[in-house]
Amino acid sequence: MKGVTTITRSILVIEDNRDLANLLRLHLRDLAARVDLAHDGVEGLGLAQRRPYDLVILDLMLPGLDGLEICRRLRGAKDSYAPILMLTAKSSETDRVLGLEMGADDYLTKPFSLRELVARVKAIFRRTEAIAQSQGAEAAPVIVHNELLIDCEKHEVSVDSRQVELTSKEFDLLVYFARHPGRVYRREQLLDQVWGYGYDGYEHTVNSHINRLRAKIETDPARPRYIQTVWGVGYKFADAEPG
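The structure corresponding to this sequence follows.
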């Protein structure tokens, strides 16, 4: 008699190729996951907004609403932080970077092997679990640095009592910096710690996220007070100023 599989995660696959979507569901169920399918962008966005998922696998080219727009809307929602693995039939660097800049956590270019996709999914789950554990083990869920306040549980940021809207990845990057003030990080270290598996060669992604963060939290982005450049090395979060 077969043992009963306990469902521990939920995955949403938004893919208009029904054969591929069904194949993905078949293999992802082996990860003890409930897998929901959507075959167009409007349906997929609706499901992602109605239910909390542990992962969204999102095709770039979709009828109704494309994957980039879905990614943008999900990352603009304060209560939606599901990792996004983007699938694309396009192989140009521009298309990959657009997905990453919109907030995708990883990408695969079609055609891909199912073994690689499952490996990427496992890596994303390991990374999100490690981040959750490290955040739970570290200091209080509210980080205060001069006029900057970060509420890690509510995913809220304010500067001098002014609410600041951040994307999920901008928030993750800011929290990582703020938990390690004074420590200098190279771009590839930040990619590894905040973005994770599969981002070799995309150091400019770090640059663009830091530029956007500075524009949102710094009084003068040209003379940053919080996220500082260490020339020839990388970036650091400033030590707290004496009271």
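The chain is about 40% helix and 20% strand.
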